[in-house]
Structure to design on (455 residues):
């Protein structure tokens, strides 16, 4: 293998093409290469003291070789000539020893938006001084501690920023390179009062620093969320309307996405088996996954196999329209890959959302709450009590009790139980507060009735 070139090995596209050339020289006609380079910086402050400052840098190459339907996968973080030569040998050897699987395949080249069109990269994040990152976190903590006299202490405030470059090439001629950045600030407060300690946290996260909330806004909200839970009490078991606050609603949407995983459905391990084309949610619910939304956290021109990360309507007015697939799942299910494959250079693909959201309604959050005579605003859930095969769920949680359309008093120690099919079918109001703080966003919504377990 000859790596003599004017291009440094930090140029991951060049690196991927060199490996691809070597694979072709060995007579392999079905293979793909993913090369990734990433940097992440983080700062943690607690009680006005800098606790940690870290930088992590990662770089590596992963190879998938397919010979007569047999897959060989190998990866390395050592991009020296000797290491990459051994990597190619290892992938070919593993393919020859593997069992055949008709699902194995690679992506065909297709037109996609350029990374620059999708506005995924913030060049200013490359030059933020460490002192400024520390100052941002100190400002956040100061605002958090000052937000309410009952805030007893900081449980930690954080800054994270990073950038990643990915190159995907294959023997069918596909060649895609993308660059993206991300930045976040996080605060966690502890409030004390009424003989209780309560914690609350808040964050802001974006591709571009200019899209972040201010440190003062994040700090104040973290403090408010801790203080508002002081005096929380238990309630008696009751069936009542449940208003899922936007961030909890987003967690519910994440659970539903797991049930939309085409491989899970193919294995009959999802409660949505055989329900394509059927009603699985209220007619108010439309769910979209769109990798082409500019500046969003899940935006990408292709997924980590090279499939276009196109816009997909998964549920429309409550009707299940499609599942999500990587290449293998699509081939085995006689479907089309949806651009949801995610992987590092050191792993095989799994499925994940790009920018997944529920289309918002017209009501404000406050107006939605005013329509509830007696119920709960659910602001946190605990545990992972989900049976994806049956759709049965049971979570611990807490929130604010609603009386006559007003937030009345904090509640804790409750259990929310039901079935995902019934939960989504019984959504009877959706607010307009779609708030992008991760790759999954869902506005506040109300379920007409759920069992709320209490004392």
């Amino acid at each position: 293998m000859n790596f003599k070139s004017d291009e440094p090995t930090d140029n991951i596209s060049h690196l991927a093409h060199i490996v691809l050339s070597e694979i072709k020289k060995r007579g392999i006609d079905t293979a793909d290469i993913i090369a990734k380079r990433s940097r992440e910086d983080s700062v943690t402050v607690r009680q006005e003291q800098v606790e940690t400052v870290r930088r992590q840098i990662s770089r590596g190459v992963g190879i998938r070789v397919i010979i007569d339907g047999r897959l060989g996968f190998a990866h390395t973080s050592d991009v020296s000539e000797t290491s990459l030569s051994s990597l190619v040998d290892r992938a070919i050897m593993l393919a020859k020893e593997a069992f055949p699987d008709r699902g194995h395949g690679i992506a065909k080249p297709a037109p996609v938006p350029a990374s620059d069109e999708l506005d995924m990269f913030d060049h200013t994040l490359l030059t933020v001084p460490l002192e400024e990152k520390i100052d941002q976190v100190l400002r956040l903590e100061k605002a958090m501690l000052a937000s309410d006299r009952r805030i007893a202490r900081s449980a930690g405030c954080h800054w994270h920023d990073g950038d990643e470059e990915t190159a995907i090439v294959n023997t069918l001629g596909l060649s895609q390179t993308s660059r993206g950045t991300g930045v976040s600030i996080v605060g966690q407060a502890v409030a004390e009062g009424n003989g209780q300690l309560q914690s609350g946290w808040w964050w802001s996260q974006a591709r571009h620093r200019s899209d972040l909330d201010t440190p003062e806004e994040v700090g104040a909200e973290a403090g408010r969320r801790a203080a508002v839970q002081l005096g929380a009490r238990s309630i008696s078991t009751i069936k009542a309307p449940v208003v899922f606050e936007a961030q909890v609603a987003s967690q519910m949407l994440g659970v539903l996405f797991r049930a939309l995983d085409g491989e899970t459905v193919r294995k009959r391990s999802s409660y949505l088996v055989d329900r394509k084309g059927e009603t699985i949610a209220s007619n108010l619910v439309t769910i979209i996954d769109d990798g082409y939304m500019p500046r969003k956290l899940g935006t990408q021109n292709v997924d980590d196999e090279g499939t276009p990360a196109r816009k997909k309507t998964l549920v429309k007015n409550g009707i299940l329209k499609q599942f999500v697939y990587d290449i293998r799942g699509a081939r085995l299910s006689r479907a089309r890959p949806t651009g949801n494959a995610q992987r590092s250079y050191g792993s095989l693909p799994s499925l994940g959302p790009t920018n997944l959201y529920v289309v918002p309604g017209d009501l404000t959050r406050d107006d939605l709450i005013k329509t509830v005579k007696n119920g709960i605003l659910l602001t946190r859930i605990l545990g992972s009590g989900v049976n994806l095969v049956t759709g049965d769920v049971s979570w611990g949680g807490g929130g604010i009790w609603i009386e006559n359309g007003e937030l009345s008093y904090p509640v804790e120690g409750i259990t929310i139980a039901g079935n995902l099919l019934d939960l989504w079918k019984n959504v009877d109001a959706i607010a307009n507060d779609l708030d992008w703080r991760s790759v999954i966003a869902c506005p506040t919504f109300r379920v007409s009735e759920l069992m709320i377990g209490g004392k």
About this structure: Residues 127 and 288 are 35 Å apart (CA to CA). The first strand starts at residue 31 and ends at 46.
